[in-house]
């Protein structure tokens, strides 16, 4: 790391403080003796979601959570359980070291989780997500409940 004051290559680290995703280093130039701070951070790949129409969007955790929260409205589902569902979705990315998954896959993971947590929330999420435009789709979702 070059000294920002005199351009000297020889700088030494006085101390480094790791925090969760970042390391802060205090450095001192070996020539002009001035001190400066550098940060080292993990660079995460951008996660993307492929929609049904083939378009790509950045993965938006808040949006996913909002969708789940609207499905569990007034249902006995805890914030911890919602976090668990989001974790399960994120695992889909990490387990295969993938940076892109389809919106269909996300919906399936959420439904799989909700099915065991709360059946009303499951039906609500499925009806929005699968866009039940026909009775058959609705009956299908209900019969999925019977299987578990
Ligand atoms: Zn210097």
Could you walk me through the main structural features you see in this protein, from its secondary elements to its overall organization?
The chain is α+β, with helices and mostly antiparallel strands and 148 residues long. It has two domains: 11-41, no CATH class; 48-147. It contains five helices and six strands, in the order βββββααβααα. It has helices at 61-71, 79-95, 103-117, 119-129, 135-147; strands at residues 11-18, 22-29, 35-41, 48-50, 56-58, 100-102. The strands form two sheets. The chain has a three-stranded antiparallel sheet, with no helix packed on it. A three-stranded mixed sheet has the order 5-4-6. A hairpin with a 5-residue loop joins strand 4 and strand 5. Helix 3 (103-117) packs antiparallel against helix 4 (119-129). Zinc ion is lined by residues 3, 5-6, 8, 29, 31-32, 34.
Low-confidence stretches: none
Q: What's the overall geometry?
A: elongated
Helix content: 40-55%
Small-molecule components bound: zinc ion
Percent range for β-strand residues: 15-25%
**Count of individual domains:** 2
The average pLDDT value, as a whole number, equals 87
Q: State the order of secondary-structure elements, H for helix, E for strand.
A: EEEEEHHEHHH
From the N-terminal CA to the C-terminal CA, the straight-line distance is 58 Å
Work out the number of β strands: 6
Largest sheet: 3 strands, antiparallel
Provide a count of the helices.
Answer: 5
